UniProtKB/TrEMBL annotation:
GO molecular function, a single term: ATP binding
Annotated family: Belongs to the AIR synthase family.
Pfam families with a match to the protein in the record: AIRS (PF00586), AIRS_C (PF02769)
Keywords: ATP-binding, Cytoplasm, Ligase, Nucleotide-binding, Purine biosynthesis
Listed name of the protein: Phosphoribosylformylglycinamidine cyclo-ligase
EC number, as in UniProt: 6.3.3.1
Species this chain originates from: Microbacterium immunditiarum
Pathway: Purine metabolism; IMP biosynthesis via de novo pathway; 5-amino-1-(5-phospho-D-ribosyl)imidazole from N(2)-formyl-N(1)-(5-phospho-D-ribosyl)glycinamide: step 2/2
NCBIfam families for the chain: purM
PANTHER family named among the record's database cross-references: TRIFUNCTIONAL PURINE BIOSYNTHETIC PROTEIN ADENOSINE-3, TRIFUNCTIONAL PURINE BIOSYNTHETIC PROTEIN ADENOSINE-3-RELATED
Residue span(s) of domain PurM-like C-terminal: 183-349
SUPFAM superfamilies assigned to the protein according to its UniProt record, in alphabetical order: PurM C-terminal domain-like, PurM N-terminal domain-like
Assigned GO CC terms: cytosol
C-alpha cells in the first residue's frame, strides 16, 4: 500500500487560475487607505459582506432624498495598463461617480467599487483602490465596500476594468435642476484638468494611427520629462467639495449644475435647462488646453469636430443668478478652480442661422445649446 502523501492537497480553484491568497493580500495592502475614508457613520470594518452607514443625520432633513450614481472609467484604463501605472485611475472613478451626485445638490455619503481582472496582482489592485480612497477622502465620501473579481480566461493577466456606485443625500427643497433655472441666469464654465475620463477611444485611435508610443516623450503636453502615457493619465478634477461649499454659501442663487462628460459641452448643458430655453456658449471666452489641440492636430481634426466627444477644457458648468455670477466665480477661484462666464440663459424661439443647437440629451427633453464663435487662441492666430 502506498504511503499517504505529505504534500498539501492541490487547490482546484487555484489550478483554475483564481488565486484567493493574492486577493487576501490585496485587501491587506489597501485596508489602511480605505479606513481613512471612514467617519463615525461607518459601522464595521473592511471585509464584511455589506457596508453599514448610520443614517441618523437624515433626521435633520425635512424630506431627505437619496441620490445615486454608477459609472466606470472607460478605455482610459488601457493606457494605465500599457505603462503599468495604476495609482490615478481610482481618482478618475470617483470623479465619474461622485461628481455626478453633486449635480443635483446632494452631499455624497458612501461609495463601493468593483474591479474585474484577469489575474489579481495585489500591488496593482492596492494602487487602484488607494486612488479610489484618495478621491473619496477629497470628496468627503466613505468607501464602505468593494469587490475584486478574478476572471481568468475572460480577461488577460494584465487586463482589468473598474466601476463604482455612490449614494448621497439632499433635502427635497434644495434639489438643483432645470426647474430652478430662470431667463437671464449666467452660465459659468469650470476649468477641467484635461481629458478627464471621456473620449479615450478617440484618443487611443489617434495615438495608434500616428505611431506614437505611450513611453515617448511629450514635451508639448507637459514638462520635459513627461511621456505621452503619463500626460494622458492626468487625473479627473474633483469638483464635489468646492461645489458643495458654493451651494452652502450661495445655495438660493445656484440653480443648476452640469457635469461635462460623454457627449461634450452642449449636450450636457442642455440636459439641465428647462424646455423652451436656449444658450449660446461663446468659444471666444477660453482656449482649449494643449492636450486637446495636440491630439486634434495629430489626428488631422478640427477642434470643433471633437466637441461632442471631449470636454475641451470645461469640466463642469454652473447656472447661477446673474447677481451672484462674479461672487460664484471668485469663490471657485479661491478653491483653485478657474471659472468664467460662457453664456446666458435665453427664452423663446431659437435664433435662425449659424450652428445647429443640441436640444436635450440622454432622454431628457431639456433646453437647447450650441457653441458659437472662435476659440480664443484661434481668433488671435
Amino acid at each position: 500500500m502506498a504511503s499517504p502523501s505529505r504534500d498539501a492537497p492541490a487547490n482546484p480553484y487555484t489550478e483554475a487560475g483564481v488565486d484567493t491568497a493574492a486577493g487576501d493580500l490585496a485587501v491587506e495592502l489597501m485596508k489602511s487607505a480605505v479606513r481613512r475614508t471612514h467617519g463615525p457613520e461607518v459601522l464595521g470594518g473592511v471585509g464584511g459582506f455589506a457596508g453599514l452607514f448610520d443614517a441618523t443625520a437624515f433626521k435633520a432633513y425635512d424630506k431627505p432624498l437619496l441620490a445615486t450614481s454608477t459609472d466606470g472609467v472607460g478605455t482610459k484604463v488601457a493606457i494605465a495598463q500599457a505603462i503599468d501605472k495604476h495609482d490615478t485611475i481610482g481618482l478618475d472613478l470617483v470623479g465619474m461617480v461622485v461628481d455626478d451626485i453633486v449635480v443635483v445638490g446632494a452631499k455624497p455619503l458612501f461609495m463601493t467599487d468593483y474591479i474585474a481582472c484577469g489575474k489579481v496582482v495585489p500591488e496593482r489592485i492596492a494602487d487602484i483602490v488607494r486612488g479610489i480612497a484618495a478621491g473619496c477622502a477629497e470628496t468627503g465620501t466613505a468607501l464602505v465596500g468593494g469587490e475584486t473579481a478574478e476572471h481568468p480566461g475572460l480577461l488577460g493577466p494584465d487586463d482589468y476594468d473598474v466601476a463604482g456606485a455612490a449614494t448621497g443625500v439632499v433635502d427635497a427643497n434644495h434639489v438643483l435642476g432645470a426647474e430652478r433655472v430662470r431667463t437671464g441666469d449666467v452660465v459659468l464654465a469650470l476649468a477641467s484638468s484635461g481629458l478627464h475620463s471621456n473620449g479615450y477611444s478617440l484618443v487611443r485611435h489617434i495615438v495608434s494611427r500616428a505611431g506614437v508610443q505611450y513611453g515617448d516623450r511629450a514635451p508639448d503636453l507637459g514638462s520635459h520629462g513627461t511621456t505621452w502615457g503619463e500626460a494622458l493619465l492626468e487625473p479627473t478634477r474633483l469638483y464635489t467639495a468646492p461645489l458643495l461649499r458654493l451651494i452652502a454659501d450661495h445655495g438660493d442663487r445656484v440653480h443648476a449644475l452640469s457635469h461635462i462628460t460623454g457627449g461634450g459641452i452642449a449636450a450636457n448643458v442642455a440636459r439641465v435647462l428647462p424646455r423652451g430655453t436656449w444658450v449660446d456658449v461663446d468659444r471666444s471666452t477660453w482656449s482649449p488646453p494643449p492636450v486637446f489641440r495636440v491630439l486634434a492636430d495629430l489626428g488631422g481634426l478640427d477642434l470643433t469636430s471633437t466637441e461632442g466627444t471631449w470636454n475641451l477644457g470645461i469640466g463642469f458648468v454652473a447656472v447661477v443668478s446673474a447677481d451672484k455670477a462674479d461672487a460664484a466665480a471668485s469663490a471657485l477661484a479661491q478653491d483653485g478652480i478657474a471659472a468664467w462666464q460662457v453664456g446666458v440663459v435665453n427664452e423663446g424661439p431659437l435664433p435662425e442661422g449659424g450652428a445647429a443647437f443640441e436640444q436635450g440629451a440622454k432622454g431628457v427633453d431639456g433646453g437647447a445649446v450650441r457653441l458659437v464663435g472662435t476659440y480664443a487662441d484661434d481668433a488671435a492666430a
